[in-house]
């Protein structure tokens, strides 16, 4: 099963709203834990390690691309530079 790279969620806005509501009124630590648990539950559902590895790599790339400081730090670390 290949990783889906195109929108594949029925009612994506509704899903996003539900996800945000699930975190409402939670302290940051618990909200982060909820998202981590959701990721593990969905990873178990997917089950395919190659797809999960591709998804992790894509999420990391996407996260670094959106945060230039983090991307620069990661590039320095990869090059063996010290901060």
Order of helices and strands: HHHH
Assign the structural class, choosing from mainly alpha, mainly beta, alpha/beta, alpha+beta, or little secondary structure: mainly alpha
Whole-angstrom Rg: 16 Å
Largest sheet: none
Estimate percent helicity: over 70%
Low-pLDDT residue intervals, each spanning 5 or more residues: none
What portion of the residues fall into strands of 2 or more residues?
Answer: under 5%
What's the helix count?
A: 4
Detailed description of the structure:
This protein is mostly helical. The chain has helices at 12-23, 28-46, 49-66, 68-79. The N and C termini lie far apart (41 Å). The model has no long low-confidence stretch (mean pLDDT 88).
Which features does this protein show?
83 residues; mainly alpha; 4 helices; globular
